[in-house]
Design a protein that fits this description.
This protein is of the alpha/beta class. It folds into three domains: 5-87, MurE/MurF, N-terminal domain (Udp-n-acetylmuramoylalanyl-d-glutamate--2,6- Diaminopimelate Ligase, Chain: A, domain 1, 3-Layer(aba) Sandwich), CATH 3.40.1390.10; 104-317, UDP-N-acetylmuramoyl-L-alanine:D-glutamate ligase (3-Layer(aba) Sandwich); 328-457, Mur ligase, C-terminal domain (Protein-Tyrosine Phosphatase, Chain A). 32% of the residues lie in helices and 22% in strands. The chain has 16 helices and 23 strands. The strands form five sheets. The protein has a seven-stranded mixed beta sheet. Strand 6, helix 2 (68-74) and strand 7 (82-86) form a beta-alpha-beta unit. The longest helix has 20 residues, at 284-303.
């Protein structure tokens, strides 16, 4: 980022106390890693006030950004800093990020949202474009909300060819704001379920909110089932779209990359071109994500007169590996295989993980915890999970009791700690593959640690 103090004043409709900085290169909201010459923006939350921490960085900060109440608090300090007063610091943070986004005139900005698959698709695209020689900036960790998205955007270099931004929401109004900040050239919706429906008004609310990302984009890419959901909710599709559902992709017929998975061998087809990728697991959702990413890359490259073959794109994404906690295989005690998928869960991703487990030839063991924030559909979403191909089932949490009630052979535990205590007495073997999956709030990583052999990553 490189913006002037005058740029920040225009973007935020704020006003400066003291001198106006000629140039600012970084805006930080956390004092812990603060470096000299940066600007500090004080955020407020239900249980914290960043203005109270400004004193620890005033000797290094080029400028401070705060609201009226915070600026009055800072007046008690012996400040030698420029201070930008704004109405709302969270709003201002997004406004500053948007001002920088408008400077990225040579950067294609891709925004990704959806109820599942955001991080996987983002990481595949990031790898693929980078392998093809593009300068890529992308979301890291879970910086995909109203704080994380501005952080990500402000870190995009001006000479980046492509910026890939994840946009996650849990409350009404958040997507409209994120879309306004990011102003994507390409908008992607991976898939839509009732994830986070408690804060969004059920599935229809999720659909309406997610669809706001599409407004203003040059073109959009829609994952499996998204087009039908948009149409069913009377949401007009953008004129330019790439849809996984062939029957709905009237304007770009044949633009998809079709796929077929034979064991771990993924076969891709695009027009009359063919390519293959060897996967670590027979995971159909991985195959779907890789094909979707390949279609997005080919569409973008072809639209910019950069003719690239399917084989070259497939080679670029062939080395993709899931990030930690997302169906990541490792060696467990007694040489069992652990599939660590405990980072998060919703009905679609949970079933996909179970289906992947069932596609393996080993003894199949599922340790499943609650899926959070499903609202009124929670009981049916848990109860209707298909675990018929699993040999042994361990269920954890109040919501998983609905599934346990219809599977008397399953062991049920109220908490992860109870499960840890019981599983500590069970000896698994090299013939066992153990899937561990739940929403992040269930903290099932403690079960992963219990069962994992130390320092034993596995490449299947």
């Amino acid at each position: 980022m490189k913006l002037s103090g005058a740029d920040l004043q225009r973007a935020t409709a704020g006003h400066w106390h003291g001198s106006i900085p000629e140039s600012l290169h970084k805006v930080m909201t956390d004092t812990r890693d603060f470096q000299a010459g940066e600007a500090f923006l004080a955020l407020r939350g239900p249980h914290f006030d960043g203005h109270n921490f400004a004193a620890s960085v005033t000797d290094r900060a080029l400028a401070l950004i705060g609201d009226a109440e915070g600026v009055r608090l800072w007046s008690e300090l012996d400040l030698d800093n420029s201070v930008l007063e704004v109405n709302d610091t969270l709003q201002a943070f997004g406004d500053i990020a948007h001002a920088w986004r408008l400077r990225l005139t040579d950067t294609t900005v891709i925004a990704i949202s959806g109820s599942y698959g955001k991080t996987s698709l983002r990481s595949i695209l990031e790898l693929g474009f980078a392998e093809l020689g593009f300068h890529v900036a992308a979301t890291h960790a879970n910086l995909n909300n109203l704080i994380g998205v501005p952080q990500t955007l402000l870190a995009v270099p001006e000479d980046a060819d492509i910026a890939i931004i994840e946009c996650g929401i849990s409350e009404t109004g958040e997507m409209s704001r994120l879309a306004a900040i990011v102003q994507p050239d390409i908008a992607v919706l991976t898939g839509i379920t009732a994830a986070h429906s408690e804060g969004l008004g059920g599935l229809s609310g999720v659909i309406r909110e997610k669809a706001l990302l599409l407004e203003g984009a040059q073109w959009c890419a829609l994952g499996a089932g998204v087009t039908a959901l948009l149409k069913a909710n009377h949401i007009k599709l953008p004129e330019q779209s790439l849809a996984v559902d062939r029957s709905y992709d009237d304007q770009n017929d044949g633009g998809q990359v079709s796929w077929k998975l034979n064991g771990c061998d993924l076969q891709l087809t695009y027009h009359d071109q063919h390519a293959s990728i060897a996967l670590a697991l027979p995971a159909a959702h991985w195959a779907s994500n890789l094909a979707f990413a390949a279609a997005i890359m080919l569409r973008h490259l072809n639209a910019n007169h950069q003719q690239v073959s399917l084989e070259r794109v497939a080679n670029a994404i062939a080395g993709w590996q899931p990030s930690s906690g997302r169906l990541q295989p490792s060696v467990g005690k007694n040489d069992c295989v652990i599939l660590d998928d405990c980072y998060n869960a919703n009905p679609v991703s949970m079933q996909a993980a179970i289906d992947t487990l069932c596609a393996l030839e080993s003894n199949k063991i599922a340790i499943l915890g609650d899926m959070a924030e499903l609202g009124e559909i929670s009981e049916s979403a848990h109860k209707n999970l298909d675990v018929s191909g699993v040999d042994s089932i361990y269920l954890i949490g109040a919501h998983m009791h609905a599934l346990a009630a219809s599977h008397p052979q399953a062991d049920w535990f109220a908490t992860a700690d109870e499960a840890v205590e019981a599983l500590a007495d069970i000896s698994f073997s090299s013939e066992d593959t153990i899937l561990i999956k739940a929403s992040r709030s269930m903290a099932l990583e403690k079960i992963v640690q219990l069962l994992r052999k130390q320092e034993a990553a596995l490449a299947l």
